Amino acid sequence: MAPDGRTLKHVQVREYVRSLVSGSAPGSPAPSERELVHQFSVARMTVRQAMDALVVEGVLERIPGRGTFVARPRRTASRIVGFTEEMARRGLLSESQTLLARREQAGPGVARALNLTEGDAVIHWRRLRCADGAAMCLEDAYLNEVLLPGFLQSALPTSLYDAFEARGLRPTWAEDSIAADLASPDEAVHLEMERGGPVLRHSRRALAGEKVVEVSRSVYRADRYTLWVQLGHA
Amino acid sequence: MAPDGRTLKHVQVREYVRSLVSGSAPGSPAPSERELVHQFSVARMTVRQAMDALVVEGVLERIPGRGTFVARPRRTASRIVGFTEEMARRGLLSESQTLLARREQAGPGVARALNLTEGDAVIHWRRLRCADGAAMCLEDAYLNEVLLPGFLQSALPTSLYDAFEARGLRPTWAEDSIAADLASPDEAVHLEMERGGPVLRHSRRALAGEKVVEVSRSVYRADRYTLWVQLGHA
DNA sequence: TAGTGGTCTAGACCACGAA
DNA sequence: TCGTGGTCTAGACCACTAA
């Protein structure tokens, strides 16, 4: 489809307009379609193809009879992020202490969640996660070793999600479950809280495309953590 | 734009194709563009406009050189639903007992959340919500009286979200916060649980377009409720 | 080779908004 | 009245896929 040497005209126009309006205030006018026809010496349908893409993206908004304008940014559902980015968003410095990082054979539950067969090799990574120096969460992550070759052999990353990103495996879909519970004795020790104190249990199954990249169980100190979720759009 | 008497051609083609493929299995071929050009005696660009819309909607998928096919349904983020639909989804019968339903003056927090001024009239509706006969949740909802005229004067609905729907105020955006905690004595009595038992606190601010339609605080028995959330798409 | 979608042209008329 | 976006035409050539 895309000729090798040259850039498609509608892409040229699209990216020109995108750069023009990037940074413009919502409501600012974009060039009119006929104006762009003259500037680029292209047909109007070509310009419309370019603008259509930006409208679908939510960058532009058309008002018949008036013109095309910079759209106000859409509200979008929560992005899928890991602990590190979540804490950064709250202005907290995150640190982690690896309690366990090894190759294991998948049990029935983990195998099913990772779309693997029982006994397949998985990476089990257990960390105590702190924010601004205070124990916040105990996290057990299970990863598909096939998708992360050499993961345990090289230095463990600070952010698992950065490691996904670097491998083109940024999660695009997540199924989370959230429940309240009381801390087990072992959890209480790690989280430096009293036994039987309240905790928030957060489980996640994250996919990149069709690949299950992460299955995890986290337990948060209830007194230090509130989960925020945005749903819907527009 | 839209002439009164007749239907736009690209809309005709679009709806024809939509009805053709509705119910078809993912991967089934849709008519080719040139085929539709002949059937409808329209230009190819008109057919493409129709098909483009269906592709953006996620109904169709184009494969260059091969044809256009029915797309597999997209995974989408959690819909914004209320208690009634949430329980129905779990196969549970929900019932509610109204503990309080009255007009109040908005306090500072509720006023800010509802985009109102302190002292404005709001509806405060407190319900004990049960699933399959068992106490599940204690919910305090605050509503903008202006958006729900006559709400308290007529029979209270079973489902608040049905009432929104009937008024064209179905929430399209929600900001939720979720935390673990221990039940207060009062909550424990209503929820028929021991004092200091674990609960899940779920707060919501729901918008329909730009209008804040609901601000609520719910407290769930931790032993009976786990929250499920899906994020992302594709 | 025949068919498909992707790109592109050079026009046209319409309804609507602002001046 | 003029400019805007919305619709529509009747073609064209391209790259790709499958037979």
Structure, explained:
The structure is a homodimer. Chain A has about 230 residues and is of the alpha+beta class. Chain A folds into 2 domains: about 5-70, Winged helix-like DNA-binding domain superfamily/Winged helix DNA-binding domain (Arc Repressor Mutant, subunit A), CATH 1.10.10; about 85-220, Chorismate lyase (3-Layer(aba) Sandwich), CATH 3.40.1410. Chain A contains 7 helices and 9 strands. The first copy, chain A, has helices spanning about 10-20, 35-40, 45-55, 85-90, 110-115, 160-165, 185-190, and strands at about 60-65, 65-70, 95-105, 120-130, 135-145, 175-180, 200-210, 210-220, 225-230. A 6-stranded antiparallel sheet of chain A has the order 3-4-5-8-7-6. Chain A has a two-stranded antiparallel ribbon with strand order 1-2. The longest helix of chain A has 14 residues, at about 45-55. At the A-B interface, helix 3, strand 6, strand 7 and strand 9 of A face helix 3, strand 6, strand 7 and strand 9 of B. Chain A binds a DNA duplex (19 and 19 nucleotides) through helix 3.
Write the layout of secondary structure elements.
2 copies of one chain form a homodimer.
Chain A: H1 9-21, H2 33-40, H3 44-57, E1 60-63, E2 67-70, H4 83-89, E3 94-105, H5 108-113, E4 121-131, E5 134-144, H6 160-166, E6 173-182, H7 185-191, E7 198-208, E8 211-221, E9 227-232
Antiparallel strand pairs in A: 1-2, 3-4, 4-5, 5-8, 6-7, 7-8
Chain A binds a DNA duplex (19 and 19 nucleotides) through α3.
